[in-house]
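Allow me, if you will, to draw on your knowledge of protein folds for a short while. Thank you for your consideration; the sequence and its tokens are set out here:
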Amino acid sequence: MKYTVLLLLSVLALLLGCADEDKNETPPPVCYLNDYVPFELNNWWRYISTHWGGGPTEVDTSLNIIDSTAVVLGGVTAYRLKDIDPDLTEYTWLVVVNNELRMYETLPHDTAGYYIFLRCPFNVGSTWPYYSRPIFGQTIMATLVDNNATITVPAGTFHNCLHVAVSPYFHAYFAANIGLLRGANAYPDSSAGVDDQLLSYYVAP
């Protein structure tokens, strides 16, 4: 399971008041992306995955562990996520840059495409392109559905979570100081899909 699992953002709310009428405006809430992406070497997350469609429902587990870092994009630290499941091992790169949590399928560089899991500010209803390039000529959009959700997964019940939707069929939930709690993806007719839920984790204090 990819950290798709996997997750939003740092501060993009600056109040530029130069007129008296601005004094009574309420500034947008400040958000800190690093609260939702606890990147440290050897942090790990274990997920239970339920797959359905095209045959019997299958359940397996996968382990995501941060196993290395690299300095990319002019001085930003990227974290390699090693994804181990029963069938194969995959690697993705996670980086926070420009108030975005990005996932790259290769070592990040200036011309590589990437997914944007989270973006500041955490305003309900805010949208952003889910992928940095159009897919089949279309821009796939992500939406912050909720910034105060309560989510229950095998690892426990978590409050004040972020809920991100990419179209009606992919949903991701993030908890502060934990990371990705759940990623659920289904075909439009729900005939097939996968639901990844956090089973256990280790995040360095």
